[in-house]
Amino acid sequence: MENTIIKTVNLTKTYQVGEIDVPALKAVNITIGKGEFVAIMGASGSGKSTLMNLIGCLDMPTSGDYFLDGVNTSKLTKNEYANIRNQKIGFVFQGFNLLPRTTALENVELPLMYDRLDKIKNPIKQAKQALDKVGLADRMHHIPSQLSGGQQQRVALARALVNEPAIILADEPTGNLDSKTSVEVFSLFQKLNNEGITIVMVTHERDFAAFAKRIIEMRDGKVIKDSPIKDRLDAEAELKKINEEAIIAE
Amino acid sequence: MQAKIILKVATKSIMKSRMRSLLTALGIIIGVAAVVVMVAIGDGAQRNVEKSIASLGTNLIIVTPGTSTSGGVRGGAGTFNRFTMDDVDKIKNEATLIKGVSPLVRSGGQIIGGTGNWFTQIQGVSPDYLDIREWPLQSGEFFTDRDVMARSKVCILGMDVKKNLFPNDDPIGQQIRIRNTPFKVIGVLSEKGQSSVGTSNDDVILAPSKTVLDRLSGGRFISSIQVSAITTDKIAAAQAELRNIMRESHKLVQGEDDDFTIRDQSDLSEAATETSRILTILLASVAGVSLVVGGIGIMNIMLVSVTERTREIGIRLSVGARASDILVQFLTEAIVLSLSGGVIGVALSFLIAYILNTYTDQSAFIKPQIIMIAFGFAGAIGIFFGFYPARKASGLNPIDALRYE
Question: Can you spell out the DSSP letters for B359-397?
Fold first, then answer.
C-alpha cells in the first residue's frame, strides 16, 4: 500500500513474570494507512494496550517487525526510539497526563523542548496554534487544576498535535470523561481526522468506537476481527442530539 | 535541549516547592557559611601574627651573643658578651648581602623633660636602624654617622615617650635629661604599636650608639647587632655570610662553637603560622562535616522528588525525552539547589565576618580562594549526591512511569 503508515509483521511481545513467560501479543499483522481513524477494541488482557505501547514506541517487541512511516523500528536504539516518539507520534492518555502546576501553553510546548532536529522554528507560536486548533486559545495561561476534564484532554490533544506527528495514539481518551464531554472530544478527533491526521485509539466502549472509520478487535493477543465501520456516527450530529434532549428534559 | 532551557526547567521545579527547596538548601547554606567563616577566622588570626612579626622589619636578622664555653662547660644564652663596635664595622665593610647594619646598645633610665619625667629604655643605634626596622620618622630628622662619631647628645623619641613628656607641645629642639645628661630632641618616631610579645614598641628613645656607650652605659660591649638582608630570599645566604664574618672577627678556630646566635624572623613566624594553620584545618574539617550532611539532605530530597515525579518523568519520556535528558534535568536541579545554597552561604559568611570584625575582637578575613573552594565544594556535593537520584529517574521505563500512581 502506497500510503501505509503502520505495518506490523508477526509482532510478538512476551512478558516474563518470574520464570513464567506470559504472551501478551502473538504474531499480530496489521496495516494502517494514512488518514485512517482506527479503534482497537478488546477486553482487558486482550493485548490492546501492549499493541498500543509497541505502536507508540514506548516498548520494544520480543520478536517481529514494526514499520512506522517506512522505517523498521525493531533495529533502533533507545535514543532513536525517543526521537520517533518526539517526531512521529502524539499521545493522548486516559488520565490526561499533563504536568501539574504548569500552564497549558507550557504543557503544549513540552515536546518541542526535546525536538533535536529543530523542526519547529518558533515553538511558542506553534504551541499557540495547536491550542487554537483545540479551541483553548483563551485558556493558555491556565494550569491544569483550573481546567475541566474535557479542557485538560484538549490540552493533551494540543500537546499531541504540536510536533505535527505522523499519527496520534489515544489510549482510552475519554475514559475519565462524562458522555457529553466525550462526544465533544470525539468531534474534535473527527475534525482533525478530516484534515488528514491519522488516529489510532484504544477503547472498550463500542458506542465510542463507532466514531472511528475502522475497528480492530482483539482477544488473547490476537486480532480476531478487522473491519470498516458501516454506520459511522458523526460526533457533531450526536452532540446536537444530546443538547436537544437536554432542552426537552427541562 | 539547550542549556538555557535545562536551567529554566530546573529553576522552575525548585521554585514550585519553595519551602522544601529552602530547607534542603539550608544544609548547604550552613555548611558553606561554617567552612568559610571558620577558615576566615583562622586566616584573620594568621594575619594578625604576620602583622606583628612584620612590624619587626621583614628582612631583619638579629645577631645576639651566644654561650661561653670554658673547659667544656657551656653557659646559657647571653653569658658571653663580647660584641663590640669592631664587629659592627667588620660586618659593614665585608658583608655583601646586607642593606644595613646597626648595633643595639641597651640602656635605660629616668628621663626628665617637658611636662614631667618618665622611665624608659634607651637604645643606641646607627643611622641604618630606621631602614632595618622599616620604621619611618613622624617628624624631625634622624642623626647621622657624624653624630655617632662625635658622640653627639641628640635623641629621637618614641611615640609613647613623646606622649608622656610632651603631650601637647612639639618636642623637636627641646632639651631632655637622660640620667642627668642633657640631650637635644631632633625627631619623633611614628607609632609602631605592639611587638610580637605584647609590649609596646613605642616606649623607647633612640640615640647614637657611641653616645650611649660612652655617656650612658659606660662600657664597650653592645647587646646585639641588627642587620637587614638585601631581599627576603637572600636572608639565608646573608646569615651564612654573617656567620663567617663573626667567626673571623672573634677569631674562632675550626671546630670551636659559635659564640653568637643568628636568628631571622622566619622561625618565629613559622611557629606562629603553623599553630593557626592547624587550628584552621581543624575548624574547617568540623565545618566540612556539616557540608556533607547538607549534601545527604539534598540526596534525600531528590530521591523523594524522583518518586513523587515519576509520572512527570513518564510524560517527558513519552513526548520524546531521552534517558540522558532526564538525568541531566535532575542532576541540574541538584546542582542548582546546592550552588544557590553556596551563594547564600557565602553571602551569610560575609555578614558574619563583618559582624565579627565590627563588634568583636575576633578578626575574620575571607580570602577569595576560599570562596572559590566553597563554591567548588557545593557544586561537587550537588553532583555527587544528585547523581544517584538522577540516575534512578533516568532509568525508569516510560510505560511504568506513566502508569505510576
Answer: HSS------HHHHHHHHHHHHHHHHHHHHHHHHHHHT--
The whole-number pLDDT of residue B291 equals: 85
Looking at residue B1, what is its pLDDT? 56
pLDDT tens track for A160-201: 999 999 899 999 998 888 989 999 999 999 999 999 999 999
Confidence of residue A3 (pLDDT cuts 50, 70, 90): confident
Residue B54 has pLDDT above 70, yes or no: no
Q: What is the interface size between A and B, counted as CB pairs within 8 Å?
A: 59
Q: What is this structure's pTM?
A: 0.71
The predicted structure's pLDDT at residue B132: 86
Residue B124, pLDDT above cutoff 60: yes
Tally of structural domains, chain A: 1
Is residue B195 pLDDT above 90, yes or no? no
Taking the CA of residue A97 and the nearest CA in chain B, the distance in Å comes to: 7
Output phi, psi for A242, to 5 deg: -60, -45
What mean pLDDT is predicted for residues B175-203? 84
CB distance B63 to B238 below 8 Å: no
> Which residues contact residue B379 at a Cβ distance below 8 angstroms, ignoring those fewer than 6 apart?
B335, B338, B339, B342
- CA-based nearest residue in chain B for residue A106: B9
Of all residues in chain B, the one with the smallest CA distance to A169 is B318
CA distance B44 to B46: 5
Residue of A59, A79, A111 with shortest CB distance to B319: A111
B172 in contact with A, Cβ within 8 Å: no
Distances (CA, A) of B158 to B161, B274, B362: 5, 32, 29
Predicted interface score ipTM higher than 0.90: yes
| Structural domain that includes position A145 | 4-249
CB contact under 8 A, A82 and B5: no
Q: Inter-chain contact A110–B323, Cβ cutoff 8 Å?
A: no
Mark yes or no for CB contact B320/A82 under 8 Å: yes
CATH number of domain containing A163:
3.40.50.300
Q: B42: which DSSP letter?
A: H
Mutate: best of B12, B318, B324, partner A, most A CBs <10 A: B318
Q: Is B295 on the interface with A (CB under 8 A)?
A: no
In which region does residue A70 sit, left (phi positive, over 0), alpha (psi from -120 to 50) or beta (all else)? left
* Cβ atoms of A165 and A88 closer than 8 Å: yes
For residue B330, pLDDT beyond 70: yes
Determine how many CB atoms are found less than 10 A away from the CB of residue A111: 31
The answer to whether the Cβ–Cβ distance between B319 and A93 falls below 8 Å is: no
Q: Taking CB atoms and an 8 Å limit, are A56 and B318 in contact across chains? A: yes
